[in-house]
Design brief:
20% strand, single chain, 115 residues, 2 helices, alpha+beta, three-stranded antiparallel β-sheet
């Protein structure tokens, strides 16, 4: 990997964030259940299945059923949130490194010898 400045690395990370799709801070759960109808296939062991999304809203868990056909979208959005968190952690590390560097008159960071 080539040696890049802190600002260049921060720009790379910001570009990665821009390329992500929509992020959703939530968890996806596959739920299997019985409906309770005596003649239904779920009464014989093959349970119904649906996908739910859970999130914390003001200290309470909010549960939303994902409509059929939107399951891939829910998984993608939750995955994008996880990727965004990882990118933000790296960006924070770069920003902290920049703040530790001496500033030049133009406000740019100056690489210390050996970095």
């Amino acid at each position: 990997m080539k040696n890049t400045s802190g600002r260049e690395r921060a720009e790379q990370l910001l570009n990665q964030m821009r390329q992500l799709g929509m992020p959703m801070k939530a968890s996806v759960v596959i739920r299997r259940f019985r409906c309770g109808k005596p003649g239904c296939h779920c009464a014989k062991g093959k349970r119904h299945q649906d996908m739910i999304v859970t999130r914390n809203k003001r200290g309470k868990t909010q549960t939303i059923r994902v409509m059929r056909g939107r399951e891939d979208q829910a998984l993608e959005w939750v995955g994008n949130w996880r990727k965004l968190k990882a990118i933000l952690a790296k960006l924070t590390a770069v920003e902290l490194k920049i703040l530790r560097m001496p500033a030049t008159k133009a406000g740019e960071e100056r690489e210390s010898p050996g970095e």
